[in-house]
Amino acid sequence: MQENISKHEPQANCEVINNDVRNIIWCILAGVTFAIIGIMIMVYRMDEQEHMKTRDVDSIQATRVSENTQQEKYQIRFENQKVCIYLDDEFYDYADIEVDNLPKDLYDKLEDGIGLSDEQELYEFLQTYSS
Predict the structure, then answer these.
(1) How far is CA 13 from CA 3, 5, 7, 19, 110, in A?
(2) Distance from CA of residue 63 to its chain's centroid?
(3) Boundaries of domain holding 112
(4) Alpha-carbon torsion 116, 122, 124, 125, what sign?
(5) Per-residue confidence (pLDDT) for residue 33, from 0 to 100
(6) How many CB atoms lie within 10 A of CB 88?
(7) What's the pLDDT at 46?
(8) Using an 8 Å Cβ cutoff, are 75 and 114 in contact?
(9) What is the pTM of this model?
(10) How many domains in the chain?
(11) How confident is the prediction along the chain (131 residues), in pLDDT tens digits per residue?
């Protein structure tokens, strides 16, 4: 009788080990799945932010074109590796904007200069793109 019990004990231990391994594998798979979902959400949000920045620049340009009667008080230009702010065509200040992180289309527009009609537009632009 004791021989039968001892024969079944190793098999029971193997089942416990197999269950432990199975649980570990499920935990690893769940962790990897959550990590992938987290990365996908992060990439989506970064893409959405990039889209918002581009849209903001386009709206500023559209405002500038639609209000031709209003004089551009501020001009933002990229000069000598820095973003410069001009007030009434005279140098006013440097903007704390990291040029390497700007979208390509905004970088191109800054080389030509972006005109802003008032201090509020300047403030919104700086809030959007400052480091």
Answers:
(1) 16, 13, 11, 10, 70
(2) 25
(3) 2-129
(4) positive
(5) 93
(6) 10
(7) 80
(8) yes
(9) 0.47
(10) 1
(11) 445 554 555 555 666 678 888 889 999 999 999 999 999 988 888 877 776 666 666 666 555 544 444 577 899 998 888 899 999 889 999 998 888 878 888 888 888 899 998 999 999 998 888 86
Assess contact for 75 and 113: CB atoms under 8 A: yes
Q: Are 85 and 76 in contact (CB under 8 A)?
A: yes
DSSP secondary structure string for all residues of the chain: -HHHHHHHHHHHHHHHHHHHHHHHHHHHHHHHHHHHHHHHHHHHHHHHHHHHHHHHHHHHHHHHHHTTTS---EEEEEETTEEEEEETTEEEEEE---GGGS-HHHHHHHHH-EEESSHHHHHHHHHHH--
Q: Can you say whether residue 94 is alpha, beta or left, with left for phi > 0 and alpha for psi between -120 and 50 degrees?
A: beta
* 91 Rama sector, left if φ>0, alpha if ψ -120 to 50, beta otherwise: beta
Beta carbons of 74 and 85 less than 8 angstroms apart: yes
